[in-house]
Amino acid sequence: MNSFVFLFFFLYLIGIAAQSNNPNEDDISIDNNVCSPNVTYSTGELTTTSSEPITSMTYPPTIYDCDFECNCTCNWKHDDTTNFKWIVTKGSTLTTSTGPDGDHTTGSRSGFFIHIETSSPAKFNDTARLISPDLIVTNDEQCFRFYYHMFGSDVYRLNVYARINGNLGKALWQKEGNQGNQWLFGRISLRGNIQQPIGQPYQLVVESIVGRGFQGDISVDDLAFNQGPCPVSTVCDFETSDLCSYVNDPTNTIDW
């Protein structure tokens, strides 16, 4: 019988402020922290699984979920105030050296996802938006999850907003530029980030903007919503305010 020893540990990130008269010279920054992939043991061999998210959670379905396998946008709607739209597609996008080779849900060319096509007649700053059904602001933990693909030399920007009374305000989440030929996990902890009173409605908006060339396709898949906290991830790029579930030590003299 095989036996394994499991070691549990906590990771501490420690920064020490220097003594400097210039407040800009003693700043310490950390970005894009990556842990090793999850490891799955089986008899006789070692296999690895995707490193994001770190926990494999199953959540009850909601009206905000969409994997686009219906060849549609489910309960999400296009923003009719823009002429540029997200496209539901499968396989790959029309242009080489940009976009995914398949969807995230099935991991194959037969699965569907949405993308923006940045070839002509698309032009710089064309904007596509997908709008969710109404959500209600609560004091409870809530999470919006999605996967995104931003590969190409001309990739510009992907945003997620909370739309309140028709206004977008400040982005809840933003990513810009080439992120490599891979599907990446995005998440937003909604509690405390919606500038609207408890009990009032808002909508989530997934927005993509065309860059300055044709190799700038941006794709999104597996939109999902859950009550409770966001699942823990092995990668933290600090694009959201929740520090990816890291917490500041209460004995700190200064905080990250």
UniProtKB/TrEMBL annotation:
InterPro entries attached to this UniProt entry: ConA-like_dom_sf, MAM_dom, MAM_domain-containing
UniProt entry keywords in alphabetical sequence: Signal
Signal sequence extent: 1-18
Protein's name in the database: MAM domain-containing protein
Statement: the UniProt record of this protein carries the keyword Magnesium: no
GO CC entries: membrane
Record domain MAM: where: 64-232, 234-256
Xref: Pfam families: MAM
